[in-house]
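Quick one, probably user error.
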């Protein structure tokens, strides 16, 4: 049976609505907040009074109003608290500290431990978090730490088949050394949430962020929140099958999209033709794009077809208003080939769904998993109406 809403629930709901409006639509006057939230002037005044008293909202100047007194503008106080975002990648661990409005305060990049065991990853993350909090000279409370990992997250454990993590107890390992609220999510989701809040997905109600890096993934963001599936495993776009008896994928299956579109697979193909290609995957991928030989162009033309096919599938499955192509390899490929990728996607998607969608390049760059991870504690803070959770 559904629990009855109490006055306290309603108050918390009102606080969350006001805070969300000021966070994403800043700065605003009390009158504008009432219009945008549909709350009464009296409710807005009460909630704003509380938020100002708690230091969550501050005044931000005045605007003239027609005939009457000037109206005071309000905004979220960046100094209300510090949030930390962590990108646990296969090659590096990036840790960044931000203020509440996600202005970067400090950051550090550490090489990923080898082998990348859950224990070694946790030790590395904790070291990085301590360093950035020292550097940020955080006098403000730490509202939370968000962590993007290369796999799906279910109840604090991480499943990342391609790096051999099967139910890795990362949350328990991190909690032992961390005195702040902790939020774990798939790195694809954290980047997706960042693009939806601040980047190329801004303002679109249903965004699919298609991530092409060494591997391939996607995040479906509906009204600013990633769709995670029943157990956190949604969005594994790279392991959808595009060929029966196809190329072997890192996950062990055959014919996955990742085996045709991931930078790892493309560079491997390039290396068979160019044995002296750079050992570093990203540099090798750049030289594949720059080579412009008949062989390299053939590899890229095929990659474009698979990108279009995969995006066409996403459009048919999710009917999004926008598809954002991101990830470091996706951005490089898209810079040169986005019009052809769109054309291929149009070929595979149903006509009506394709007419309703924009296919655009990501705006936040490839290194925004950490920023995205920092949106996790912020989302929690906003949803709770400005009350930090433990
Ligand atoms: Zn696979």
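Nope, works fine. Designed sequence:
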């Amino acid at each position: 049976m559904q629990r009855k809403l109490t006055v306290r629930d309603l108050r918390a709901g009102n606080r969350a609505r006001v805070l969300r409006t000021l966070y994403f639509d800043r700065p605003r006057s009390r009158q504008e907040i009432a219009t945008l939230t549909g709350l009464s002037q009296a409710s807005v005044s009460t909630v704003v009074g509380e938020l100002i008293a708690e230091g969550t909202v501050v005044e931000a100047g005045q605007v003239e109003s027609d005939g009457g007194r000037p109206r005071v503008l309000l905004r979220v106080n960046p100094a209300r608290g510090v949030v930390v975002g962590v990108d646990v990648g296969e090659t590096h661990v990036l840790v960044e500290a931000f203020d509440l409005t996600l202005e970067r305060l400090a950051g550090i990049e550490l090489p990923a431990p080898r082998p990348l065991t859950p224990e070694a990853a946790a030790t590395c993350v904790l070291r990085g978090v301590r360093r950035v909090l020292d550097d940020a000279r955080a006098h403000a409370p730490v509202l939370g730490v968000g962590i993007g990992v290369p796999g799906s997250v279910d109840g604090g454990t991480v499943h990342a088949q391609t790096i051999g993590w099967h139910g890795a107890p990362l949350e328990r390992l991190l909690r032992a050394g961390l005195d702040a609220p902790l939020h774990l999510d798939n790195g694809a989701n954290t980047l997706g949430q960042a693009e939806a809040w601040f980047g190329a997905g801004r303002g679109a109600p249903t965004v699919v962020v298609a991530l092409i890096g060494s591997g391939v993934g996607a995040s479906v963001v509906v009204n600013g929140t990633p769709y995670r599936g029943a157990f956190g495993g949604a969005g594994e776009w790279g392991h959808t099958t595009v060929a029966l008896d196809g190329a072997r994928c890192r996950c062990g299956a055959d014919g996955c999209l990742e085996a045709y579109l991931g930078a790892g697979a493309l560079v491997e193909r390039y290396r068979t033709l160019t044995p002296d290609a750079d050992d570093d995957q990203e540099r090798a991928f750049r030289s594949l794009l720059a080579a412009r030989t008949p062989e390299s162009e053939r590899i890229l033309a095929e990659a474009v077809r698979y990108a279009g096919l995969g995006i066409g599938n996403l459009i048919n499955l999710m009917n999004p208003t926008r598809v954002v192509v991101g990830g470091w390899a996706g951005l490089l490929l898209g810079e040169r080939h986005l019009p052809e990728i769109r054309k291929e996607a149009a070929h595979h998607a149903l006509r009506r769904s394709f007419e309703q969608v924009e296919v655009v390049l990501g705006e936040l760059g490839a290194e925004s998993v950490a920023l995205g991870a920092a949106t996790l504690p912020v989302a929690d803070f906003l949803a709770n109406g400005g009350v930090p959770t433990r």
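The pocket of zinc ion is lined by residues 239, 249, 251, 253, 256, 258 (CB under 6 Å).
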